[in-house]
Here is the input.
Amino acid sequence: MEQGWPTARPEVENLHAYSAPLEGRRQLLRLDFNENTVGPSPKVVEALRSIPADHIAIYPEYDGLREAVVANLGLDLGPEQVGLFNGVDAAIHAVFHAYGDRGETLLTTTPTFGYYTPCAQMQGMAIEALPYEGETFAFPLERLQQRLSELQPRLLLICNPNNPTGTRLAPEPILQLAASAPNTLVVVDELYEAFTGDSVMPLADFTATPNLLVLRSLAKTAGLAGLRIGFAIGHAAVVDRISRVTGPYDINSFAVTAAFAALKDQAYVDGYVAEVLRARSWISEQLKAAGVRHHVAGGNYLLVWPNQDPAHLDAALREAGILVRAMSGKALIDGSLRVSIGTTGQMQQFWSAYARLEGLSA
Ligand SMILES: Cc1ncc(COP(=O)(O)O)c(C=O)c1O
Here is the structure.
């Protein structure tokens, strides 16, 4: 207590917590967090509006939600194979809390989603992050196979498609990785899978490879980011272990109601994904035609390298009412901006501002 307040665990004292510029975004065109840019299905909004007042005074109930996830996936899974979490962020945290111990290793890639690192650090784990390869940011598969067998790490985290490079990996090599490393929990973060269709889930046999765990969320495609709900899907025993380290009511009743409605309205999500894919083609064409260095692969986001200082352009776009995310300090992509892809109309708005600010003809 030397400094006048109780000292936390050494890992926490040394931790750089995940921080993102999340405030003051509401009136702007939000192309900075890969969210759904138009909102959830009207059926979700209707379900939320119909919540009776006493619902708020009662602890949430989760009966039937795991079954609804399984029905939505259309796969031969039992409800006990689905873990419910307060967003995939909470699932990631729970995975590390349940499985990651001091001195053990997280094997992952770089650059990737920023929350894996603090989760490993708060457990006192070592991190080995293998860089994506070449101009296309290809998945470092051979290197990863090699390090997986050499290190036998406690955890392997693969973001597929990867945020922010969009790098895609087919399901078969992921399943082979999991089969080759039974002592490693192989976590596949499929948050943006709807934009590629590369899920391991249809091929996965969680009995044969119980060390495989898949993360899915209703945040991005279904538009429930503000309500926080995500799922971890895998072997029932693993799902049970990661669920043990969460609180009994970590997911609130509003998220539960919204999730039921969203899972029932897959047509809405499919329609949104189709529109994002159209918008992605449109903006790619513009960037190509204008000779702008860019990288578009999987996911509802792309990278652009502006001619001017990216921090300046980031600020100027904000002035124009458009938020994007500067990738400053990120391995391999420092100097780029990550731009989330919304509707074609929204990408037109982005492109006209971007082209004007960069002195290009739109
Ligand atoms: C790759 C990846 N995983 C997980 C998350 C967190 O998802 P959720 O909103 O469900 O917590 C994000 C959000 O940006 C993400 O990009």
About this structure: The chain is about 35% helix and 15% strand. The radius of gyration is 21 Å. The chain has a mean pLDDT of 96. Residues 283 and 347 are 6 Å apart (CA to CA).
